[in-house]
Amino acid sequence: MTLTNEAACEEIAAQIGWFYFNKAREKIGPSDDRRTYELTEHEYHAVAHEAECLIKELGITAIKYDENKKVVIHLRKPGLLIGWHGTVIDALNKYLDKVLITYEIQISGLTIKEDKDIPGLFNFTYGNGWGAFDEEEYP
After folding, report:
1. How many other C-beta atoms lie within 10 A of the C-beta of residue 89?
2. Rounded to 5 degrees, what are φ and ψ at 3?
3. In angstroms, rounded to a whole number, what is the distance separating the alpha carbons of residues 65 and 71?
4. 51, 62, 64, 91: which could join 21 in a potential S-S bond, CB 3.0 to 4.6 Å?
5. If the chain, 139 residues long, is cut into consecutive pieces of 10 residues, what is the mean pLDDT of each piece?
6. Residues 6+ apart with CB under 8 A from 100
7. CA torsion sign, 33 to 38 to 42 to 48?
8. Residue 78 to residue 112: CA distance in whole angstroms
């Protein structure tokens, strides 16, 4: 089964989501002393919410997979994905290597690119030299 680049990107994105779900699960942990456990419905929702917050904080804007089997992740906060001394990105790379083999997706490299706001895009909001709007002139 060979996936198209678009399907491979979707699967890679899904697995990044599951990586962060598992990361949140470790962070929250079980509600009691169970070492191996199934999540209760309440715990599942708490973990899912935490994972969603972690993923949104990254600000991922695009995931690309090219013919050279390289994954490029575009995001606003690359430091969060890299982690302290590269621990998060290394763990993600190992996780993706392990789980994507099931989908016959091989990764030869993982690249991170920071996306920044386009200069001038928000010039209208602050510091434009205008005073307060006159309500009579601009109802």
Report:
1. 17
2. -90, 150
3. 5
4. 51
5. 79 95 82 62 90 95 91 94 94 93 88 84 60 55
6. 11, 12, 15, 106, 107
7. positive
8. 7
